[in-house]
Amino acid sequence: MKRPLGELESTIMDRMWSYRRPASVRDVLEDLRTEREIAYTTVMTVMDKLHTKGLLKREPVGRAYVYEPIATKEAYTAELMRHALAGSGNQAATLVHFLERLTPEEATALEAALQVVPPGSRRG
């Protein structure tokens, strides 16, 4: 989970997170085809790559697999944020720049999050 997802990977993961249930390649394909023309093999290849990257788990069902996200979208996004912060070189400066750019809604969300997990507490 070191890099953001590509466009199709992101689209497929968004679908998988929205289902809140296991889904087959065929399920995702039919969903995607409401918006674009796409081949079964393309969706299958991307879902296999997402499995290899550790974002989807899969179980065999008959001659196919059903897939399910390993983590929530929020957990995935948090991991991306942590990775970006770790690679920034100067974490304090990076956080200052991040905080300066927060919208009022984002600042409210941050304040609410800090009520749940106050600074200095560790979850692990």
Rg on CA atoms, Å: 18 Å
* Beta-strand percentage range: 5-15%
Give the uncertain stretches in residue-range form.
none
Query: Helical percent range?
Result: 55-70%
Task: Name the assembly state.
Answer: single chain
Tell the overall outline. Answer: elongated
Distance between the termini: 18 Å
Count of helical regions? 6
Q: Helix-strand pattern, N to C?
A: HEHHEEHHH
Sheet with most strands: 3 strands, antiparallel
Would you report the number of β strands?
3
Average pLDDT level? 92
Lateral strand order in the biggest sheet: 1-3-2
Please state the structural category. mainly alpha
Organism: Nonomuraea maheshkhaliensis
InterPro entries: BlaI_family, WH-like_DNA-bd_sf, WH_DNA-bd_sf
Protein name: BlaI/MecI/CopY family transcriptional regulator
Keywords: DNA-binding, Transcription, Transcription regulation
